[in-house]
Amino acid sequence: xxxxxxxxxxxxxxxxxxxxxxxxxxxxxxxxxxxxxxxxxxxxxxxxxxxxxxxxxxxxxxxxxxxxxxxxxxxxxxxxxxxxxxxxxxxxxxxxxxxxxxxxxxxxxxxxxxxxxxxxxxxxxxxxxxx
Length: 131
What we know:
By secondary structure, the chain is α+β, with helices and mostly antiparallel strands. The chain is built from two helices and seven strands, in the order E-E-E-E-H-E-E-E-H.
């Protein structure tokens, strides 16, 4: 079975809303929500991969802050090891390049979205976070 290491950014704005990204119909797991990010390339650390992926996907620069959780999830054909991090936007306005939609969502409304299975543990932690 193929194994990949993936990083994702949990970006919170000044109004305590979380950026959520809808996977497009052309992506694997279409129409599921996720935290933006992507695969870690060989010889790349998590922070560098996350900064690169968010710049490519959302056209913004981010600061990578503290880790949230790492999750291993097995899909039909791939095992994903997902590392999520709290991040903040340094510059730019997010625009989707690969995703069907970006949406800022309050923590208590995250359950209203249909999440990719590997992202669900992160969602649970975010909902419990106190300001």
